[in-house]
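Researcher: We're teaching a course module on how sequence relates to structure. For the next exercise, students receive a sequence and then see the predicted structure as tokens, so they can try to spot secondary structure elements on their own. Here is the exercise chain.
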Amino acid sequence: MQQRQSEAHLRQLASVGQIAAGIAHEVRNPLTAVKGFLQLLKEKNEERYIQIAETELNNAIAILQNLLQVSKPDMDDEPVERIDLTVELESIIQLFQDQFYRVNVIKNFENPGNYIYGKKNQLKRAFFNLLKNAFEAIEDKGSIMINHSATKDSVTVSLQDTGSGIPNEKLKLLGTPFFTTKQNGTGMGLAFVFSVIYQNGGTIEVASEENVGTTFTIHFSKDRRKNRREAVHLDQLELQQTEELREFFILNREKFAEQLLIEAVNVRDKIDEIMGIGNINLLENAHKLVLSIAEGREHEVVHFAKTEGVAWAKHSLTLAFKLEWIQSVRRVMWSFLYNFNRENHDFSSKEQFFSLEKQINDLMDQFLNHFFISYSQYKDDLIRAHRELVDDLSVPIIPLTRNMSILPLIGAIDSFRATTLEDKVITEIGASGIATLIIDLSGVVDMEANVIHRLIALIDGVKMMGCEVILTGIRAEIVKLMLRLGVTFTNKAITKGTLQQALEDHLSKSYAQ
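Model: And here is the predicted structure for the students to work with:
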């Protein structure tokens, strides 16, 4: 059990790049730029600052719109229809003709004429993104194999490229918003792909090996009922009627759950698993959410969303399942609202009915927004705590005696780590009253020129606080660099060849006293 929890925590840290880092980096950076240029406007009234600020703000808005599109792609008005994927794949492949000179596209379309049910334009966009990624993964020359096959019950499409591949530890993060293996990517393309595949009743599998290639395998059911993007028809259901909307959902709770399980094809098989991992009862929580929305209790909806966000983040549950589940709740709730309106006379006008429908949509959107915010904040706090731990371990000040401590430095020291070093050393000397600090550099493999200057300045600062500095294990490479820079530690600190020598000298002085 403890091992499973440890593995879950590791998955939490791994998956945070997607939401927490994406929100922090992709959105916060352009907004920070806007803030900076608005500050400049106060000082200098130049029109170009307005233009730059507007551009950055549009970038932030575009990122948020992409995230919303991933969260609810099925909100388009596009109808569900029969689709022959061989026909659609043929048309998509032709869009990449300019790449055929370097990438050989191999088509193996078996069993054409087998249909699935879904939203054609959404699926075409999803397959376009997959093919685009495949071409981009091949840096020079290579090949892409596209297979299509069908059985009595399902249709399978696979896209295999000979590109750079994806590290195994990153495979589980694919499809997460803001996670990407591209240098300038945002991860929104694959996030859209995964969401659309799930929303259209499919499943997606990824296999990859570095420097060999990646294969995406997508399965769709041929059963019209299992491709759940069609509207839920409740005409034949015997729903108990009441004048109050809340009571209507209470009385028909079992029918609601039944329709919800029909809608959420991919999630219904995961209900027990999610319950076991996070003690989250999806059906009970859906009922609770529906009642809060039906009564317009905004505060309860927001509070519930935040609680759910923390729970899903804490247990690293798949976001795609949450998105599908909430959108299924939305659709079934609309259908029940239609049946409630059909049998009751509470709504004196269409405006009144659509007003209630708008309220339901707004509250559902608020639930999604606060869920994602809460989810990302939890992940952000987790990675921040992890980073603080890493920073602390990167500057380990070890007490040797009451007045003497050792600081062994290992690995490369860049500007970021130098800042951490300055902060921790000065703070610790002031808090602990260290009189002698031994800084061992024998494990430092690389040190930038500007870092050497900062280390000299740090030693000056330490001496100002009345602390003596002893440097040990300075590597030959660092000495050569210092000679070229024309700087030295002479008159700055005592230098010893090894840490052992410094300790022996200190102990001998202590015994002599």
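Model: If you want an answer key for the exercise: The first strand starts at residue 81 and ends at 83. Confidence is low (pLDDT under 50) at residues 1-25, 67-75, 225-236.
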